[in-house]
Amino acid sequence: MPAESATALVVRTTDWSETSRIATLWSREFGKLRVLAKGGRRLKSNFEIALDLLTVCHVVFIRKASAGLDLLTEAQVAERFPALRTALPALYAGYYVAELLSEGTEDYDPHPALFDATLAALRDLGAVGPLAGQRLAAYELTWLHELGYSPALDACAACGQDVGARPAFSAAAGGVVCPSCAPRQRERRALAPAALEALRELRREPAAWRRPWGPAVRAELRQVLGQYVTYRLGRRLRTLPYLTG
To answer: Do 117 and 169 lie in a common domain?
Structure first.
C-alpha cells in the first residue's frame, strides 16, 4: 500500500509492547486514524515527543487494507499547546476535547472544519482563564453540529412550536421542548431562559463565548451539554466530571 500523509492531533496513546505504542490520531485529511508506532516507546525513537497527547504533528502512515491498525512511519511535531498546562480547568478541557474526538467519531470520517475548530479551541483554552468553560461549550456545539447531532434550540424538538417562557431540555427529544410536550419526555430538565439564550448565541455567533455570563448560566450550560453529549455517545466520558463551567 502507498504511504499517506496528514496533519493530525494526538488524541490517545496506549502502550502495545515494550518498544511500541498504539496512537489514535484525529487528522484533517482522513478523520480518525488508529496507528501502530513501532519503536514509539524507545527514548530515542524516530517519533520522539510527536506522540504526546494533544500534540499536532505531520504524519506519514501506511494504510492497512484490512481492519487492522495502520502503520505509522513518520511523525514530526507541528504544534503544541503548552498554555493548557498552566491551569487545571484548561488542561481538563483539552483532555475532554481529545476524548470527544477519540471516543465520539468514526474511523476515516474526515471533518476538516471540525479539525480547524479543534485547533482553534485548544489555542484559546490555554489563554482565556475563567472563560475556558464557555469556550469549551462553544466547541461542543461545533462538535455536535459537525456530527449531525446539533440540538433543536429555536423551537420545540417534539412539536415544532415556540417553547415559551418555561422551556425544558430533553436529550432524548433532541433539544428544547415546550411545556405541552415536556411531560411526555421521561428524561427532561428545566432550562432557564437565560441559559437557552446563551446556547442560541453560542451557536449563532462564533465569539459569543467571550460574553460575561454569570455563574448560574455557566453551570447550566455545563450540565445541559454534558448530559446531551453523554446521551449521544451512549456513555459518559471519563473527563466529564473534571470540567468546570
So the answer is: yes
Q: Which three cell numbers stand for residue 107?
A: 474511523
| Number of structural domains in the chain | 2
Longest CA pairwise span in the chain (Å): 64
**13 lies in the same domain as 27:** yes
- Contact (CB, 8 A) for 134 and 221: yes
Tell me the three state secondary structure of residue 205.
coil
Within 10 angstroms of residue 59's Cβ, the number of other Cβ atoms is 29
Asked whether residue 34 falls in the same domain as residue 116, the answer is: no
Same domain? 103 vs 57: no
Q: Residues 15-62: pLDDT tens digits? A: 876 668 899 999 999 999 999 988 655 555 556 678 899 999 999 999
Residues of the chain with pLDDT under 50: none
